[in-house]
Amino acid sequence: MAATVNIRRDVRDSFYRYKMPVLLTKIEGKGNGIKTVFPNMADVARALNRPASYPTKYFGCELGAQATFNDDTERYIVNGAHDQNRMRELLDGFIDRFVLCQSCKNPETELLVSRDGYITADCKACGYHGDIDMRHKLTTFISKNPPKKAGKKGKKGAAGADSIAGQPGQVDGVEDEDNDDDELTRKIREGAEKVMTEEEAARLIAEREKADDWAEEDTSPEAMARRMAALGVSADSSLLAGDGDDDDEAAGPYGEFAAWVSEQKGQDANGLSAAELYKEADARGVTKKPHRLLPVLFPALFDEKVNAELPKYLPVLAKLNTSEKTVKALGGGIEKLVEAYPDTIKAVPKILMTLYQADVMDEDAIRHFATHVSKKYVSKDLSKKVRKAADPILQWLDEADSEEEDEESESE
């Protein structure tokens, strides 16, 4: 798997939300038949939300070389031997001209071709709608081969999982928590609306039953503490009573929401959807501080079967993972999971791999997690054991980086 880079390579922030695989090149043939092949162009193009033929054709236009492509076999070629760094610079040019919004510079744009052949870019992030510069040769090709409209369920992302946030290269955390126009929010809302319509009557009945049974439900601090203990979270009456300080994630609404999740999972292991989970979290207001929610949510949501359940809730984790602070909290959630279910320490490498492939955690975040022992969420000894268990993912990342360097050296 190729390493990922920011779609805007001028942005140095390692937590920048828009990612794409590093463009790889391979020289084939000799003499007049020499050509440059792009083995992962399909993945790069999916991350950019553009047909792979567009950047390939762009390279041909810029280099004055013949470009050939086959979407069925995912083989994309430009005649001649071309330096890998040069091709990546040309890709930056393509992104600037045909991917980035000219207003907000985010790559959340869709190309629209009018009947008379004019191309406009529609930005889903800021609402900008403007014309593409029609002077470039590629515009003729785009006009004759307009992009196909994506289906409602979306395409596979660059990492091979469903696009987490539904936006270019976002198989990552969402940085703008208040951006209600992003694709993940739309999907979650659509899912929540379906849940609402399907369970309208059931909810009314449940509310009546809850009102009737309220006196019978044990809401004492001791009962809440027992429910919290099942999550591997220390809880006392003072924590359950109020919102608590900013360092105690088990406090108040966060611990209560985690207890609710645990109860829902206990009642029906397959019944709690990602849309329901996020909708309830948002209704309770706990999504406003995801760095406090994630450490208690992870052990409430998962158990020994974490690797089977994790893909189902990746959209929610991606939505909550908004900053460097929350990615550390997500690591704390993994530690809390191991504390609650010791056998899950064997699953740590696969958990991290799944989060990496979905761009919920990028390479820098995983390396930081796997090498920095912390006693913020669990004991120092347990934190060391979790880091030791993460060694295989570090070795895999080192090997992937080494292979990429070898490919670059061979290309040069």
Brief rundown of the structure:
Residues 173-182 have a biased composition (Acidic residues). With 412 residues, the protein is α+β, with helices and mostly antiparallel strands. It is built from 17 helices and nine strands.
Describe this structure in words.
The protein is an alpha+beta fold and about 400 residues long. It folds into 2 domains: about 100 residues, Defensin A-like; about 230 residues, Serine Threonine Protein Phosphatase 5, Tetratricopeptide repeat (Alpha Horseshoe). Strand 5 and strand 6 form a beta hairpin. The protein is globular, with a radius of gyration of 24 Å. About 15% of the residues have low confidence.
Name some characteristics of this structure.
three-stranded antiparallel beta sheet, alpha+beta, 9 strands, 49% helix, 2 domains, 412 residues, Serine Threonine Protein Phosphatase 5, Tetratricopeptide repeat, four-stranded antiparallel beta sheet, Defensin A-like
Question: Secondary structure elements and their pairing?
Answer:
Elements: E1 4-6, E2 19-21, E3 26-28, E4 35-37, H1 41-48, H2 53-63, E5 67-70, E6 75-79, H3 84-98, E7 109-113, E8 119-123, E9 129-131, H4 138-144, H5 183-213, H6 221-229, H7 237-241, H8 252-267, H9 274-284, H10 290-301, H11 306-309, H12 314-320, H13 324-340, H14 348-357, H15 363-371, H16 380-389, H17 391-411
Antiparallel strand pairs: 1-2, 3-4, 4-6, 5-6, 7-8, 8-9
